[in-house]
Amino acid sequence: MAKTCLRIKAQRPPKFKVRAYNRCPLCGRPRAFYRRFQMCRLCLRLLARKGEIPGLTKASW
To answer: If DSSP codes are grouped into helix, strand and coil, which group holds residue 5?
Structure first.
């Protein structure tokens, strides 16, 4: 879990455009962020297993 202050800091508009970065809105993780789904890989995997993301299934073979 990320610190609350870092999550709030990421939501603020940056002083310069290049300083902006993405964080997962669910857990606050800054790395392994999927822009398409707007969440980190861990939250994406968890929600996909539960079936809460339409059109996405976990691969199994």
So the answer is: helix
